[in-house]
Specification:
It is built from 10 helices and 17 strands. The chain is of the alpha/beta class. The protein is globular and about 110 Å long.
Length: about 550
């Protein structure tokens, strides 16, 4: 009798322990996936990690390594064309820049006077229509012909960017004009595709009179429609033209065989902030790489630098990047997990990145998409200053591979429209801080028909200079800015839903059902064993 009683008690105790263990393990199995969702298990894709200010590096004021010329600088070539561009570029008309400039001039007496815009690029060549140009710094090589630091543009890219910001032609027949023609450009030469790392003995720097390579000197009569000079020296009958060599309008940092790294970019940004050299920074330079869920040391240095500069009150504008064979377009279903990361636009908390639209108002095919895109501006059929040394005219074509004339385009040339607008806003509203200027540009943009008035193609929309200079914003008087309502007619949403919460919910429900069934089975077994135990007691 005692043996049977002990056996029954032991069996009940074992069953209870088994039931408790199963229930505990089921709850742990459900809790682990929930915990995993809170950790950065997927790495850093759309959103970078928090800023690590220990990565902030000082400005050395010089190149990070020795570079030597690999190609001749942009030159002028007789093409036999006598075309004068009297019309305004379509981008100026689309943005109503002349009206915006009238508003600023009526309020301040000038169009951006006193505002400084730092151009971190391939340098800026002196040009008679770039009235206020200052030396910033040199991070590629010693300038030739005794030029001040930053005022030599071997590639031709930085001069065209600067022209969109602050060119001021003196020829009444020319329709082109910069966004803020009275603003001051501070030039920093930070990269060049015409230079390469020098791993041998020191090489004399390139001269602008050197023999051009096949990538920079087009053949005579190649079909350019570049305008002749508009000021002294060459006149409307002159065929002296320019032939800058570019690749889809973009300049890539840390590209093999070229000059320019993320490290020197971070140094320049830090130095500008320390010296208070500028109110606005324009960076039409990018580093594009495959998204791996991690961040590199160079990216951390740039992230710390842009955060430091933004805290110092500087408006930081960057090109969103151009899609190429080495920089694939972000066209994946889940926008939150881009396959391509572009720096500095990735750091959207401190950088206003700019996508490009074409002359039809559509997103330019080359403009890289991403959750970091802030706004958009014209980026095709660009007209700007002729970047060749000694020129006093404009350019609207570039040459690829030496003999292929093509239009100047790229997000590189959309960004300076926004940097120029930031200069106008700064001039019109001198008491606005950097964040306030960026908010004004975003809130007055032509919002896309998307939830929250923002998408991954044009951000908050194409900039609207007139609205940015005239509208009264609720956010500037302490009120929450209204969120544009979504349009009634919308395309089906992208297939970017996260299935993890559903999986976790189903797993939890399934675990609970299993635990319940086991408990019922155990209780039924206990009840069935009770009569035998009672009989044994009798």
């Amino acid at each position: 009798m005692a043996v049977g009683r002990r056996f029954g008690a032991t069996r009940r105790t074992t069953t209870a322990l088994l039931t408790g263990t199963i229930g505990f393990l089921s709850s742990v199995a459900v809790a682990v996936p929930v915990w995993a969702q809170q950790a950065p298990a997927d790495g850093y894709f759309a959103t970078p990690p928090p800023v690590d200010m220990s990565k902030l590096i000082p400005d050395s004021g010089q190149p990070d390594k020795k570079y030597k010329p690999s190609k001749a600088c942009v030159q002028r070539s007789t093409l036999g064309q006598n075309v004068i561009l009297k019309n305004r570029p379509w981008g100026q008309e689309y943005l109503q820049i002349s009206k915006a400039q009238e508003i600023v001039k009526a309020a301040t007496g000038s169009i951006g006077n006193g505002v400084k815009v730092a151009v971190i690029d391939t340098g800026v060549t002196r040009h008679p229509w770039l009235r206020n140009l200052q030396s910033g710094g040199e991070y590629v090589a010693t300038p030739t012909n005794g030029q001040p630091k930053g005022l030599e543009d071997c590639d031709g890219h930085g001069t065209e960017v600067a022209g969109i910001i602050a060119a001021k032609p003196d020829n009444p027949e020319v329709g082109f004009i910069g966004m803020a023609p009275d603003a001051t450009i501070v030039s920093y030469r930070q990269l060049s595709e015409n230079y390469e790392p020098d791993t041998s003995t020191p090489t004399p720097p390139a001269t602008s009179s050197g023999t051009p390579s096949s990538s920079t000197n087009p053949p005579t009569g190649s079909g350019s429609s570049l305008p002749p000079s508009g000021g002294g020296g060459a006149g409307p009958g002159d065929g002296d033209q320019t032939s800058p060599g570019q690749t889809n309008g973009g300049r890539q940092l840390e590209k093999a065989g070229t000059a320019g790294t993320l490290k020197t970019l971070a140094e320049i940004i830090r130095g500008i902030a320390d010296r208070k050299d500028a109110d606005v920074i324009n960076m039409s330079v990018d580093n594009c790489r495959t998204a791996t869920g991690s961040i590199t040391e160079g990216e951390q240095q740039v992230q710390a630098a842009v955060h430091y500069a933004a805290q110092a009150g500087i408006v930081i504008v960057a090109a969103a990047g151009n899609a190429t064979d080495t920089c694939p377009q972000n066209d994946q279903p889940d926008a939150k997990k881009p396959k391509t990361i572009v720096t500095p636009p990735w750091f959207a908390d401190d950088v206003l990145s700019v996508g490009a639209i074409d002359e039809f108002g559509s997103v330019a095919s080359f403009s890289v998409h991403g959750p970091w895109v802030g706004v958009a501006a014209p980026g095709t059929k660009i007209i700007s200053l002729d970047p060749a040394e000694g020129s006093n005219s404009l350019a609207n074509l570039t040459f690829e591979s030496g003999d292929k004339a093509s239009e100047i385009q790229g997000t590189s040339f959309a960004a300076p429209y926004v940097a120029g607008l930031a200069a106008l806003v700064k001039a019109k509203f001198p008491n606005l801080d950097a964040k306030g200027i960026i908010n004004r540009i975003k809130e007055t943009a032509q919002h896309p028909a998307a939830p929250g008035g923002r998408d991954n193609f044009v951000g908050y929309g194409v900039i609207d200079p007139v609205a940015a200079l005239t509208q009264s914003l609720p956010s500037e008087v302490g009120n929450q800015a209204p969120i544009p309502p979504p349009q009634l007619a919308q395309l089906p949403p992208a297939n970017d839903r996260n299935s993890t919460p559903m999986i976790v919910a189903l797993a939890g429900t399934g675990g609970g059902v299993v635990a319940l069934l086991i408990t019922l089975f155990v209780m039924r077994t206990i009840r069935r064993n009770r009569p035998a135990e009672t009989a044994s007691r009798r």
